Amino acid sequence: MIPITKANFDETDLELIRKPLESGWVVQGKFVKEFEDRFSAMTGSPHSIATSSCTAALHIAMAALGVKPGDEVLVPAFTWIATANCVEYLGGTPVFVDVDLRTFNIDVAEIERHITPRTRGIIPVHLFGLSADMDPIQEIARRHELFVVEDAACSFDSWYKGRHTGTIGDLGCFSFHPRKSITTGEGGMVTTSSEKLESLCRSLRDHGASRSDLERHEQKYSFLLAEYRHLGFNFRMTDIQGALGVSQMMKAPAIMEGRRAGAARYDVLLRNVDWLDLPYRHPDYVHGFQSYVCLFRPEAPSLAECERLSESRNSIMASLEGRGIITRQGTHAPPHLDYYAKKYRISPQDYPNAYMAERLSLTLPLFAGMTDAESELVVSELVREFESLTFHAARGFNSGMSS
Q1: pLDDT at res. 215
Q2: Per-position DSSP letters for 286-329, written without gaps between them
């Protein structure tokens, strides 16, 4: 079995996880604080606020920026559903913007035509570890007085022109789900350079409290509860997760070196495979390679041929799964999922690139510690399945012609 990814756990993780258990302080505490500090040091963000998930981080970000019913927020049409959901939670309207099939990120050229008097902000997503093009996005936001919240769920150790993703807009939101480069099981992080937003986000993650439980217990009159000035949420990270986050941050350089080495091996092995578009590179960006996502395109993709091509992709993926090689589509297109498609009466023609990205993206296994033999097996089996598929398709066509 070659999984789609594999978390990097060892004795260091176990040793640190034991410490909050031994101390008895397992809720948000000193290990969460250390994790936040290490994350800030690595990304260059002045403030990092740990949360229970990236979805929680996005929810907090929208609440902190005052999104309310009637407000519109622009989001990419190809992303995990939480990017849109965080706007819906507060009664706002996610307005989808199509993506660039080459990068899978929001198509900057499409942004301004979706801006209306009700637009409050933009949520660019750094999908699969590749930064969105932030300079023109920031310029558009400034011109229209919009906030920018970076969905950096996939972009740990991803950089845009020398700046870590998640540190460019008003707020950044990261994920530590097991499919991400480092993991705390579930977990997230909000980053910001604003002291005002930092204070508000810390309060919102903890029911709107004026001070955390740890701060209260370390101060005089610890028996008195905090004041609650905001309508907040229970989006706190536990100290068990925080301890795991600390140990993962200690190993992060080695983990990222392994992931990038795996991506580089694929680049070489797939260089002559002309029916796959490999992950896009930009000379001014550093790709984080949360995933190695290609576009399956044995012919130029179009809406007319998308379903037929998607069936071929799915057939290849199913055969690989039968051989113990796990692949995935890149992610989904929220506007074409039932909830959003029905509520906003959306059709595939409205966001054609997102529709094709969902049906033609192909994610290959990638993790730190992946061996050359495993990479070679993935590629050889992938190529073999494609050649088998095209051979049988050609035979069927010729047979039909003879009859």
Answers
A1: 67
A2: E---S-EEEEE-SS---HHHHHHHHHHHHHHHHHHHHTTB--B-
Q: Which residues face 125 on adjacent strands?
A: 151
Question: Which letter does DSSP use for residue 120 in this model?
Answer: E
> How close are the terminal C-alpha atoms of the chain, in Å?
42
| Calpha distance 166→170 (Å, rounded) | 9
Residue 368's Cβ-count burial label (10 Å; 0-12, 13-18, 19+) is: buried
Tens-place pLDDT, residues 242-293: 999 999 999 999 999 999 999 999 999 999 999 999 999 999 999 999 999 9
Closest to 169 (Cα-Cα) out of 156, 154, 151, 153: 151
- Indicate if the pLDDT at residue 401 is higher than 50: no
CB 156 within 8 A of CB 162: no
Report the pLDDT value the prediction gives residue 355, as an integer from 0 to 100.
Answer: 98
Q: How confident is the model at residue 217 (pLDDT cuts 50, 70, 90)?
A: low
CA distance 182 to 248: 6
DSSP code string of 144-181: HT-EEEEE-TT-TT-EETTEETTSSSSEEEEE--TTSS
pLDDT per residue as tens digits for the range 115-172:
999 999 999 999 999 999 999 999 999 999 999 999 999 999 999 999 999 999 999 9
Please compute, for residue 123, the number of CA atoms within 13 A of its CA located in the half-sphere on the CB side. 35
Instruction: Look at residues 234, 214, 197 and name the one whose alpha carbon lies nearest to residue 52.
Output: 234
**How far is the C-alpha of 188 from the C-alpha of 185, rounded, in Å?**
10
What interhelical angle do 30-43 and 239-269 show, nearest 10? 30
Q: Which of 246, 145, 149 minimizes the C-alpha distance to 194? A: 149
β-pairing verdict for 276-277 and 292-296: antiparallel
pLDDT tops 60 at residue 339 = yes
Contact between 158 and 287 under an 8 Å Cβ cutoff? The reply is yes
Report the distance separating Cα 262 and Cα 265, nearest Å.
Answer: 5
Contact 64, 49 (CB under 8 A): no
| Residue 403: band (very low, low, confident or very high) from pLDDT cuts 50, 70, 90 | very low
Kindly state the DSSP code that residue 234 receives in the 8-state scheme: B
